[in-house]
Write a structure and sequence with these properties.
By secondary structure, the chain is an alpha+beta fold. The protein is built from three helices and eleven strands, in the order H-E-E-E-E-E-H-E-E-E-E-E-H-E.
């Protein structure tokens, strides 16, 4: 085999991994809301969060700050449907990385996430969830500060 053929086969082997990573982080993907009276399309980048208000799950948009019914019955299903772009950080909310402004580690092992507009609030992630989400959060904010 020639070196050009080796290079081509190496590139072919590398492409699936690259495409897989792009699919996981692609916020330009579209989420479609389907209800009896409503059909709308929202790019992931236009969604601030998904919230669970028993017994329904809603999505909140960034621009209009409106809540629309989501197709999934739970935030765990939202996480699966969006391939982990939206992660369940507290019992009532799933957010994408781009909505995290800062993170502080609290003394009891929980994490305090400061969220960007339009949410503009602080959510406290449980100790158990913090250990599962730490790398994902770190990727978003770069560093986790210690609350003093």
């Amino acid at each position: 085999m020639t070196s050009a053929a080796n290079t081509a086969s190496d590139e072919a082997l590398a492409k699936p991994a690259v495409l897989e990573n792009q699919a996981e982080k692609n916020v330009s993907r579209v989420y479609i809301v389907r209800t009896h009276k409503h059909l709308s399309r929202h790019e992931y980048g236009d969604i601030a969060c998904f919230v669970y208000e028993s017994p329904y799950t809603y999505l909140q948009t960034i621009a209009k700050e409106q809540k629309l019914p989501a197709n999934e019955p739970s935030l765990v299903k939202v996480e699966e449907t969006t391939n982990g772009i939206f992660r369940k950080v507290i019992r009532e909310m799933a957010i994408p990385q781009y909505m995290i402004a800062a993170c502080k580690r609290m003394r009891d092992g929980r994490l305090a996430l400061q969220l960007k507009e339009p949410l503009n609030c602080e959510v406290k992630v449980s100790k158990e969830a913090a250990s599962l989400l730490r790398d994902w959060i770190l990727e978003a904010v770069g560093e986790i500060n210690v609350q003093g």
